[in-house]
Amino acid sequence: MATTLSAARAGTTPVASPAIDVQELNKVYPEKTQALKDLRFQVESGTVFGLLGPNGAGKSTAVKILTTLSTPDAGRALVCGIDVVRQPFNVRRLIGYVAQMSGVDPDASGLENLMLQGQLYGMPGNDLKRRVAELLDSFNLTEAGGRLVKTYSGGMKRKLDVAMGIVHRPRVLFLDEPTTGLDPEARAEMWQEIERLAHEGMTILLTTHYLDEADHLAQRVAIIDRGQVVVEGTPEQLKHELHGDTIQIELEHEPHRDLREILTVRSEVREVAVDGRMVRARVENGATALPVIMSTLENAGIVIKSVTVARPSLDDVYFRYSGKSFARAQEEGSR
């Protein structure tokens, strides 16, 4: 209150506190695996924030700490200004959490799952009934509401998961890889639901390893690798930093020569990154640079398997800061 009054007297607009404030979080698991290393980021109220990274990057560990399911070894995290370690009960009343694994009871109906979730939050009967009917309608589950969840499709179960996460009208919603395993149609429907919730003003932290998903949904993203943020900004800002086009080349065999040295002597090529048989070159104009690059590689005895030219993507951003493709980082994180 004092800060707001002081700002008003000074004739300035008070700065709103972030909905999520992560300050130098560290977490080491018993097997000496460092899941988080000085992790820091903030999420503004009423926005969708994408936390991106391959398997094992630390996304789920960060979410578990923010949702009070785990504690950090060091650092501090606030949700709506409340310390998640010191006041976990108060945090839980303000948040919704949709985990990677479905939390629905397959032997209960969709309606019963929602009613039970609301009762756990102490919602009064009439208000809860209205809220459940509203959610079933919003997620196009009204007709299926009386059916057992074990008869639902994967997309329907995931929508029910999200509905259960927001039945108590949380201020902040955590979605931990909500579209993993969904078919393209169900994934598109989930995107629509997330956009609708964001339009209603809910703060959403979305973890995903689908870079196009974050590009489409998030106002701001942080890419983490090995437990720390490697780059943060709006999707457009991050892609704009990579001027020009990206030429991606798949080689027939892993090169035994330094392709960076071979290609960067050409004025058309600004930046080169090599990851196994994959080569990415940053160029000003893909159409004019492509023939030069292909000719240079062929003259060096390098056999090309395939080539694509595209505008910069978040995958290119990740490649630039980590030195490897997102797909390869996913594979390494799964081992």
| Major pleated sheet | 6 strands, mixed
If classified by CATH, what would the architecture of the largest domain be? Answer: 3-Layer(aba) Sandwich
Q: Could you give the order of strands across the largest sheet? A: 6-7-8-3-9-10
Share in helix: 25-40%
Total strands:
14
List unreliable stretches of 5+ residues. Answer: 1-10
What is the count of DSSP helices, taking H or I runs of 4+ residues?
Answer: 13
Integer tally of domains: 2
Give the ordered list of helices and strands: HEEEHEEHEHHHEHEHEEHEHEEHEHH
Coarse morphology: elongated
What's the mean pLDDT score? 89
Q: Give the DSSP E fraction (strand runs of 2 or more residues).
A: 25-35%
Q: Quote the CATH topology of the largest domain.
A: Rossmann fold
Can you identify the CATH class of the largest domain?
A: Alpha Beta
Label the structural class.
Answer: alpha/beta
Describe, in plain words, how this protein is organized in 3D.
The protein folds into 2 domains: 219 residues, Rossmann fold (3-Layer(aba) Sandwich); 69 residues, Alpha-Beta Plaits (2-Layer Sandwich). The N terminus is likely disordered. Strand 1 and strand 2 form a beta hairpin. The strands form 3 sheets. Strands 6-7-8-3-9-10 form a 6-stranded mixed beta sheet, sandwiched between helices. It contains 13 helices and 14 strands. By secondary structure, it is of the alpha/beta class.
